[in-house]
Design goal:
With 220 residues, chain A is mostly helical. Chain A is built from ten helices and no strands. The relative contact order of chain A is 0.05. In chain B, 31% of the residues are buried. Classes of the chains: A mainly alpha (220), B mainly alpha (192).
Chain lengths: 220, 192
């Protein structure tokens, strides 16, 4: 690990937010690099001094000056405020709404009710599909944000390190996840099987480069 | 029994000056501390504190206790006001960054021995001076996170920055302070 990379990790190290492998790499570096070890120790002292800095006393007469200034404003402006609905009234309104919905459904024809049931089922499956896709999209956005954020801060040379760390984290997470096939065998609705939606595949950067190289080779 | 903030606020809205005085006395230390961290000067921090309480007084009808504690609302108003002021006075501040005029003396904690308290005071003073000399973009997250105790996501919201940028700036700012602390110590040892 390089010194600059080690120093970028100090805050996460201090907060205990590093995963074990990264923490191990940092510890190894600190054992061998005296400059970084000294800086890490001073880093901890600085944060401790900031977090435990004593509160400042209020200067004498400040409260009086504030009161005098507000006295000149006169009474505070108080506009109309609609009264808040009490909790019991909100609960009663919810019960009435549910009762009305159930009542309306019960007078519908069996055909309409079956259509509602199908719509409800599709809605549930769509919800599950969205929840699963959201996780992947969030991961991809995080990766993008790391790359863009690092590049914007003028540290383009650090982008590869950041991406590499994040990719390793994703790989470890993926390895820890259960296989999708196992879910399907148990009849679980999970597995991204919502009809008419092709689940996008998270393409590994290395895998994509390899496939691009293979395409170029086949063309030549 | 101490009266709660919400009860005092109700009395304030009815024009009770004693209730308002009690609220100001109760929260002025936090507000003044925040303003001082941003301005670095006692006189400016006093003016800012006064302006914050005037704003709050004028906006009492906008505060809803259902949306959160009064203290949280007050500190949000104070933070926004202090940050606005800090950014407006950027150029003037840069000119007098080397000056320590108007610097506040820190009170030693009663729990430490005299030698330890002095060492600690010196360390805190070094860090505070280093903080004042930091560039604005590195200084703001440190004030909000380390001095005011806001969580990272709250700091990102206040500064309207992505969470990753806040963490990165915080790390760079702390690193800069650590380097200054080490350099200062090395210089002191060289003199001794």
């Amino acid at each position: 690990m390089e010194c600059s990379r080690a120093r970028e990790l100090f805050s996460d190290h201090l907060d205990g937010n590093l995963d074990p492998s990264m923490r191990g790499e940092l510890h190894d570096h600190l054992v061998t690099c005296r400059a970084c070890a000294a800086l890490r120790a001073a880093f901890g002292e600085v944060v401790d001094a900031l977090r435990t800095a004593p509160e400042l006393p209020v200067p004498l007469g400040l409260v009086d000056r504030v009161i005098e200034a507000t006295r000149r404003l006169g009474k505070p402006r108080v506009g109309f405020r609609p009264p808040a609905m009490p909790g019991w009234m909100q609960a009663a309104a919810a019960v009435v709404a549910v009762a009305l919905t159930v009542g309306a459904l019960s007078v519908l024809s069996p055909d309409t009710r079956a259509r509602f049931a199908r719509m409800k089922q599709r809605g549930e499956r769509f919800g599950i599909y969205l929840a699963e896709r959201k996780d992947r999209t969030v991961e991809e956005l995080r990766l993008l944000r790391i790359v863009v954020g690092t590049a914007l801060e003028g540290r383009v040379d650090r982008v590869n390190d950041q991406v590499e760390d994040y990719r390793r984290l994703l790989e470890r997470r993926r390895a820890a996840e259960p296989q999708p096939g196992a879910d399907k065998d148990q009849g679980s609705p999970r597995g991204g099987n919502f009809p008419n939606f092709e689940a996008p595949r998270l393409v590994d950067v290395g895998e994509r480069d390899e496939s691009a190289r293979a395409t170029r080779r086949s063309k030549t | 029994m101490t009266e709660g903030d919400d009860d005092l606020l109700d009395r304030c809205r009815r024009g009770d000056e004693l209730a308002w005085r009690e609220l100001v006395t109760r929260h002025s230390r936090k507000v003044f501390g925040l303003c001082y961290r941003f301005s670095g000067r006692v006189d400016e921090a006093e003016d800012l504190t006064q302006e914050v309480f005037l704003r709050v007084y004028q906006g009492l009808d906008r505060y809803r206790s259902s949306a959160g504690a009064f203290k949280t609302w007050l500190m949000t108003v104070a933070r926004n006001h202090a940050i606005d002021h800090y950014r407006r006075r950027r150029e003037e501040r840069q000119r007098r960054d080397d000056s320590v005029e108007g610097e506040m003396e820190l009170l030693p904690s009663g729990e430490e021995g005299p030698v330890m308290a002095l060492e600690r005071q010196e360390q805190v003073r070094l860090v505070q001076r280093g903080l004042r000399a930091l560039p604005e973009d590195l200084r703001e997250p440190i004030i909000l996170c380390d001095l005011q105790g806001l969580p990272y996501d709250e700091v990102a919201k206040v500064l309207e920055l992505p969470l990753g940028t806040v963490k990165s700036r915080l790390n760079r700012g702390r690193l800069e302070l650590a380097k200054r602390l080490l350099a200062k110590r090395a210089a002191m040892m060289g003199r001794a």
